[in-house]
Amino acid sequence: MATFLYKLGRLAFRRRHFVALIWVALLTLAGVGAASAPPAGNSSFSIPGTEAQKAFDLLEQRFPGASADGATARVVFKAPSGEKMTDAGNKATVQKTVDELADGSEVASVADPYTGNAVSKDGTIAYASVKYDVSGMELEESTKDALEDAAQQARDAGLTVEVGGDALQAVPETGATEVIGIAVAAVVLVITFGSLVAAGLPLLTALIGVGIGVSSITALASALELGSTTSILAMMIGLAVGIDYALFIVSRYRAELAEGREREEAAGRAVGTAGSAVVFAGLTVVIALVGLAVVNIPMLTKMGVAAAGTVAIAVLIALTMIPALLGYAGRRVKPAGAKGRLLGRSRKSEPKREEAGGQPKANLGTRWASFVVRRPLAVLLLGVIGLGAAAVPAASLELGLPDDGSQPTSTTQRRAYDLLSEGFGPGFNGPLMVVVDAKGSDAPKDAFDDVAGEIKGLDGVVAVTPPAPNKGGDTATITVVPDSKPSSVQTEDLVHAIRDAGGDVEAKTGAETLVTGSTAMNIDVSEKLNDALVPYLVLVVGLAFLLLIVVFRSILVPLKAALGFLLSVMAALGAVVAVFQWGWLSGLMGVEETGPVMSMMPIFMVGVVFGLAMDYEVFLVTRMREAFVHGEKPNQAVVTGFKHGARVVTAAAVIMMAVFAGFIGSSESMVKMIGFGLAIAVFFDAFVVRMAIVPAVLALLGKKAWWLPKWLDRALPNVDVEGEGLRTAGERGSDPDEDRELVRA
Questions:
Q1: Within 13 Å and on the Cβ side, how many CA atoms surround 209?
Q2: Which of 481, 540, 565, 605 could form a disulfide with 291 if both were Cys (CB 3.0 to 4.6 A apart)?
Q3: For the chain, what is the largest distance between any 2 Cα atoms, rounded to a whole number of angstroms?
């Protein structure tokens, strides 16, 4: 592989005009496609194999024209202090608002509060339910404006009016904080390279890659039903890895220049060596993201595939456009150790700092690695205990999906949620819809009544509506209002109790009982994700483990990498629980409402963090293996790996943390949570696991770390990540077969 990538790097360097033209053309094509594509329609949230989805599909079949997936709105009214909603003036205002809402072109129905028993017992709060023909993402802006105008007119008449539901669903905004993340990345790159030109190359290529990826997602959003969150997550991950991959190749290029090579040769060798690590690191990220398909949630699968596509683009750009831009930059990119005018004189023109023995002073990475290999057990214990302590909150993990109760208090959706809780109880915001399929029953009406009677006798039920059969009389819906809020454990227990009671009724009458609605759907999603976590881990970690065996030609190094990842991801989950569930530092993070952690957060974090963790493993440990293969002792190889890679890996980690942290300012709670989770996970993995635990374990294992059975060594393909095939006979100083024997020893 190194030889192929070496040739690719030299070709891109020589044919830089052609390479640049191709990428600019692709960016232009994707941009035109995004600009001309129809707006994204409904991002369907189907959960195949769950009872809630089965009930939803049954409703569409047995209640045709009911617009089961149509948007809904609840216009909530509160009377002024000392008045009631049943007063003549307030009643007239509500009636006028209902009439105005009913005139909308996309409105399917509007329920009058006074005829639909939608006034609170104390008479101070009422609500009107609005049902639309299309989903919230497909509503015309004029329809949303009409809804807001009707609410405003009622406010002008003296009522407190708020609007809940998904009719006013907005595209999530990421705010300006992601720009701050990119700015931090730029500063780190300038400090690392000491040159604006060298620092600008990774930023430029990352932005081009993300531009192509996000524009392609936007262009295909309508056809593939991609949600707005998909492009944000693709941007987040693509930007982070795009900068990092380019950073490693530019750093290796400067190192090759420092060894006296010509620029074209240096570009080829940089792509052949660091580029090989980029390919395998990118593969682990792609495997982790595409592997999300095993969960069998279409939305999650689409998010994973879209993000994986953006990562693949980042890899291709790093391998081709970076050497092309290096050709354009020429002498403006200095060799390693030489600073440009930005940060002062060239290092080569300065006297070298020397230690007492007369040797050049070691850099920080070398000094740290030397300390770790001298005290490996102490460093290992400290790192494991620290991550274990951070992971403790993960034992209290509660999963759920967001509703209007998790919105900021500044939104009308959240205020409507609070008003409904005040007037009708917390469970009113999360009613359960029970669907009774009596097609196989001899007495459908009796079956409907039996189910309703069983539900009324359960604990935690506030209200049960009479069964509402369809025209055929073989299916009915029953609405159940719990006495607890939608995201509570009590509501989850009630859903299971209703399903158990429905099983008893089915045994007697032959009628099947199904529970659906957004609350039941959220519960089913959480359970499905929990059930899929172990198979997903086995698949992703297993495939990446095999890939790393090929890269490192070792059994223990990939095993250590996987175990270190588990430590970092558990610590990151603990931090997420502490902030978003317990409320620690919630004000600093802009978390206005604590509650259950997003259901898909653990499995998504596992996938992404595993891929990113393997990035640092590949970049750092390949340098160590390269030194070991070339004859250094195990402990010295660890120090050498840090000498060449610690500075760059540190810069890459800080950049990735800054990019992810930039998304904490998003208005979308899922994006905010993922941004924080990934940023803290990168911190734990890069600085605790890869920088401390990994060298400590390698120091303790010694030569055993690089052990590989001879039969497996012969069976595995030689991918040559270290670039041994690029070394001349004089550079090798020995027969390459002898180097391979060192690994087998």
A1: 36
A2: 540
A3: 99
